[in-house]
């Protein structure tokens, strides 16, 4: 069966909240998105890969494709949730040493809307490098949300298990990202490698 619709990449990092990323996937699907989950290599230990693959009908991707593998389609929008301290800082610095970061490295240049939902504790959120990263990503047009209250998902009102922060991330995507006709498949790196 051919899928039609807009493609949302949900990039999931190695934070405790990753166990509930299926909620974000479900909410996005309810809005009409086709969802591709991309996990950082470390995040693979935090998520239920078979459950996410059943839900999306797509393999969870976590590594760059081999040169002889087909080029995956380009995303129409990207949500990074939960975004770790590590990945937020690397994204801001332009580092592309995971497939997830490779996608993020290109996104602003391609005009792909990116929403970042960090889950970092207060100690990390207060660090100068993190604050600079957030500032620098925002200056490039990346929408960086505040880390959920209490900074640790376990401290949020619903223990981090409800839809609240996930729904906020989805709401932050520009509406036109879902409605405009889809572009061509990606041509450059990382998918074009
Ligand atoms: C149980 C556990 C929970 C973690 N939760 C977080 C978190 O909420 N936020 C965060 O920034 N790092 C968290 N970390 C640390 C990250 O996993 C670590 O920095 C890792 O290198 C991030 O890799 P990634 O950014 O490639 O996903 C956690 C680590 C463990 C073991």
Automatic annotation (TrEMBL):
Q: Gene3D superfamilies, alphabetically?
A: Flavin prenyltransferase-like
| Disordered as annotated region, ranges | 142-193
- Give the Flavoprotein domain ranges: 10-137
Q: Where is the composition biased (Basic and acidic residues)?
A: 172-182
One Pfam family name is: Flavoprotein
Recorded hits in SUPFAM superfamilies, A to Z, give: Homo-oligomeric flavin-containing Cys decarboxylases, HFCD
Q: Which domain of life is it from?
A: Bacteria
Quote the protein name from its UniProt record.
Flavoprotein
Source organism: Streptosporangium oxazolinicum
């Amino acid at each position: 069966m051919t899928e039609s619709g807009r493609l949302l990449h949900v990039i999931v990092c190695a934070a405790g909240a990753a166990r509930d990323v299926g909620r974000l996937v479900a909410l996005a699907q309810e809005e009409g998105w086709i969802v591709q989950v991309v996990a950082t290599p470390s995040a693979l230990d935090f998520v239920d890969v078979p459950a996410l693959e059943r839900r999306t009908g797509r393999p969870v991707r976590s590594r760059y494709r081999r040169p002889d593998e087909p080029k995956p389609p380009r995303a129409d929008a990207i949500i990074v949730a939960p975004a770790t301290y590590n990945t937020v800082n690397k994204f801001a610095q332009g580092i592309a040493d995971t497939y997830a970061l490779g996608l993020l490295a290109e996104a602003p240049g391609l005009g792909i809307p990116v929403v970042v939902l960090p889950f970092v504790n207060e100690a990390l959120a207060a660090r100068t490098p993190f604050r600079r990263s957030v500032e620098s990503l925002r200056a490039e047009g990346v929408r960086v949300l505040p880390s959920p209250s209490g900074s640790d998902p376990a401290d949020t009102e619903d223990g981090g298990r409800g839809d609240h922060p996930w729904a906020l991330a989805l709401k932050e995507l520009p509406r036109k990202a879902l409605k405009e006709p889809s572009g061509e498949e990606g041509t450059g790196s990382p998918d074009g490698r």
